[in-house]
Amino acid sequence: MAAPSLLGWRAFWLAKQGHRDDEYEDAVAGDAAAGRFAIADGASESAFAATWARLLVEAFVARPGPWSEWLAGARSAWQQRCTAGAALPWYLEEKLAQGAAATLLGVSFSGPDRWRAAAVGDSCLFHVRGGRLERSFPLRHSTQFGNEPDLLLSRTIPGSVRCKRWNTNGTWRPGDVLLLATDALAQSLLREAEAGHGAWTACMSVDSQEQFAAAIEGRRRRGLIRNDDATLLIVSAPASEND
Amino acid sequence: MPYTAELSRTNPTCFLFLIDQSSSMAEPFGAQPDKPKAEGVADGINRLLQNLVLKCAKVGGIRDYFHVGVIGYGPRICWALGGDLAGQKLVPISLVANHPLRVEQRTRKVDDGAGGLVDQNFKFPVWFEALAAGRTPMCQAITTASAEVAAFIERYPDCYPPLVINISDGRATDGNPEIPAQTLRALQSSDGHVLFFNAHLSAAKAQPIEYPSDEKVVPDADGQVLFRMSSELPPSLQQAARNEKFRVEPGTRGFVFNADFVSVIRFLDIGTRAAQSFR
Questions:
Q1: Mean pLDDT of the A179-201 span
Q2: Residue A138, preceding peptide bond in cis (omega within 30° of 0)
Q3: Of the candidates B48, B64, B66, which has an alpha carbon nearest to the alpha carbon of residue B162?
Q4: Under an 8 Å CB criterion, which residues of B touch A?
Q5: Which residue in A63, A154, B191, B217 is a FRET match for B103, CA 20 to 30 A apart?
């Protein structure tokens, strides 16, 4: 099914304070023509999390259909990329054996006026209509964020707990906006909304990396956001002339 | 609030281990007659160092969130990491990662996913070797630790407070260790006082007494001395102990009495969870 015409997307990110850009472990991908968008948050305990997060978002965007059709391929690709090149020191061999982990949140448009989303973990989607929050998914409250979100693993480890995948869907009207955010930013946005000063409009208007970085750094200075990688993906379409 | 500093490469913390290497450490643990205490402790320290390295290992290399050191006390006081690190005091964890004394191939049983167990080979790096000879100059070891920790805090004044863990099976032979212990615990960064935890090893087949809050439950004068030397657990560590199903009360100390091999491993693990917030 075709995505709404004129659908646009833009994404911004900032690495954890004290980290270099090449140490950023979230990932983001989108394809406006296919109407598919995704963000992922690589778990910092793993050594190869950035590679895994990137493979997940790229696979989701490129492959409509059940996750089971592309997950095994993504796992093989992860193994290959991590072991390509020189022999690994003992500690990276051990980290490779432990595997990497990441959250994944994917959105797909299933027609001109409908979208579906699926999520593992605590990266969140916010559906904003008329400047107001219509839907928050999969978490709805800032207190629901913890230290152990569900994660997709790059290895199938016997005995490991199966992760829970959440699904939802919604309608799309001209002028609507979907915001996809990794956990620290998502929690901070929900907390502000709960305090009665939702930052949805400000968030929707971000249109440059510099503006995003300044906003996140400002929040960090004021203690309004945890120090973590921050990623925002904005899906929008201009309101039609009749609106 | 103390004990909340975030670890970063520019603001690391340190873990310093004081290991009793006196002759009685050649005796086995009460509950494990085939395991000399000295060997059990060496395994525990090597395993902990490995875990600390893995916590800091990323594709781009090891991030120096920790500096670590091991002081052995027995025939003499010595900085006890081996190989290229012999004689070095507190060293960044990246140096530890890249300079083991040797890397052994060991085997462990793992779930085969079909209800059975299979052998899996893994690499076990060794930095610290067992030794059991001589007396127990614990006071001197604590004084040596204090000097090094004080220098660390001078270099990193805002660090998560350094943790010193002392593992011993007996009584100090060079004085009352409560006196240098008090000096050590009085050291502080802007994030709180230095933490000093103690593990008492036993050759008796008695149940370990873990994280007590009252010295009256410790049935031995030497154990009571170690209890009094030990810091109270800060809130984050109280939570870590609770998560492992320990009863934690106000005044609970970083102390285990009659520790067997398993409780030493667990004690080292919980203690070093102190600093969880990395950046």
A1: 92
A2: yes
A3: B66
A4: 6, 8-10, 50, 53-55, 57-60, 62, 97-98, 100, 103, 110-114, 122-123, 125, 278-279
A5: A154
- Please tell me the distance from the alpha carbon of residue A13 to that of residue B188, in angstroms, as a whole number: 37
- Predicted TM-score (pTM) above 0.80: yes
Q: How far is A218 from chain B (nearest CA, A)?
A: 18
SS3 of residue B140 by DSSP: helix
Cβ(B28)–Cβ(B36) below 8 Å: yes
User: Taking a C-beta distance cutoff of 8 angstroms, is the pair A182, A228 a contact?
Assistant: yes
Q: What is the pLDDT of residue A45?
A: 83
Question: Is the Cβ–Cβ distance between B273 and B254 less than 8 Å?
Answer: no
What's the length of chain B?
A: 279
* Two tokens, residue A174: 């001209």
A49-63, A69-83, A153-167, B226-240: lowest mean pLDDT where? A153-167
Residue A242 pLDDT > 50:
no
| H or E element at residue B224 | helix B221-229
Question: Per this entry, what is the length of chain A?
Answer: 243
Quickly count helices (H) and strands (E) in chain B: 7, 14
Query: Chain-centre distance of CA A167, in angstroms?
Result: 15
Asked if ipTM goes beyond 0.90, one says no
CA–CA–CA angle A233, A22, A214 (5° rounding): 50
Tokens 């899996």 belong to which residue? Answer: B120
CA diameter of chain A? 63
Which two tokens mark B171? 């009584």
Q: Are A150 and A103 in contact (CB under 8 A)?
A: yes
CB B16 within 8 A of CB B148: yes
- Find the CB nearest B279 among A18, A51, A91: A18
The span from the CA of A24 to the CA of A12, in Å, is: 12
Which two three-digit tokens encode residue B225?
């001395």
CB contact under 8 A, B100 and A47: no
The C-alpha angle A192, A24, B14, rounded to 5 degrees, equals 95
Helix (H, G, I), strand (E, B) or coil at B263: helix
Identity of the highest mean pLDDT range in A151-165, B23-37, B69-83? B69-83
Closest CA–CA distance from residue A89 to any residue of chain B (Å): 8
pLDDT at A2 over 60: no
DSSP state of B36: B
pLDDT-wise least confident of B65-69, B148-152, B217-221: B217-221
